[in-house]
Automatic annotation (TrEMBL):
Residues 377-414 are annotated as: Disordered. Signal peptide: none annotated. It comes from Streptomyces kanasensis. InterPro entries: Phage/GTA_portal (IPR006944), Portal_HK97 (IPR006427). This is Phage portal protein.
Amino acid sequence: MSLFGLFERRSSPENPAVPLTSASLLDWMGGTASDSGVTVSEASSLHMPAVWRSVALIAGVSAALPLHTYRRGTKDRADEALLDDPHPEMTPLELWRLAFVHRVLWGNAYVQKIRNGGGQIVQLWPITPDRVQVGRVRPTADLPTGKVFQVADDWGARHTLTTRDILHIPGLGYDGLTGVSPVRLAAQGIGLAQAAEATAGALFGRGNLMGGVLQTEQRLNATQAEQLKAAWQAKVGGLANAQQVAVLDSGAQYKPVTMPNTDAQFLESRQFQVVEVARMFGVPPFLLMSTEKSTSWGTGLEQQAQGWVTFDLAPTWLAPTEQRITKELLPADRYAKYAVQGLLRGDSSGRATFYRAMRDIGAFSANDIRALEDLPPIPGDEGNGYLQPTFMAPLGSDPLDTDDPSPGGDEDED
């Protein structure tokens, strides 16, 4: 049974099991202060829509990809029961999505390995990173690396665990032990974005965006002012009154109210904060629904999406997870691999043209193509054959002559 539940424990200063450097305690105390005056933590950063979308995108896409295991040296699938059903309550997608959320926000993912009496791993339980401290002790025969984890459980007790007990997937770091929190490193940018959002809310709230004012030479009481406003709105408001001419008497004037240039420029600057968040998480802005300075053509967006998978999603998030799963959860003769072909391939017409060309020149077999389409291989050896294009046969050979064993064909005899 795991020592750790699924839900984050509320931390308090009175709990000695929680270190003062814990992210949850910093969150309780206010998080990391930024120069903008906004306090930023892993939890509070999610209040910004761009951060929420970035985290949800990376974690959701990564966890939803098929995760297969293969026998080394072959193309044979050998899926593991542990990865198919790793937790008594959570689905595989839910478990790995939570692990990716932890990595994106805290820079580290920790999963407890639950073993049966024979030492076989039978369950995986995620641990919130703010419960864990990582360090090194003097190496021993039983602990050759010296890496240990100080972990606080649901009841405040602390436990010392090792790599035999914990699957640790660190992000980018500088000490070889843990990854650093992107949110903490980018606290200034996130804090500025949250401050800008709050300021924009105040801008709308204080009424700077009203359409205009009616000004009269006569002094009006509250009732008269409301009557004038209602009469004016009835005359010019609504689609039916569009382009109608209004008549004002008694010296009344209508003066439109425009937004000050400084406020307009401020609202435009908020778009830059979205780009900053996208840059921090390595997500193309168009995936955050920001296309102001991006192409809106389908092929252009497709290339950007494929570039994101190639240069960020795969090397930053998928490959480290594959290697950790292979190293710590699988037998030595097997390895884990995410199926990213579905994200990289283009439209069906383009794929068909590419597959046909590769099949015709003998580069792909039928089963190679089926593997790229996440389809099972053709039973037997029928799908493993490669075609030989006759128009590319060696000069002087007859590829239709099955009795000719040499690539050069029959030679003239004296």
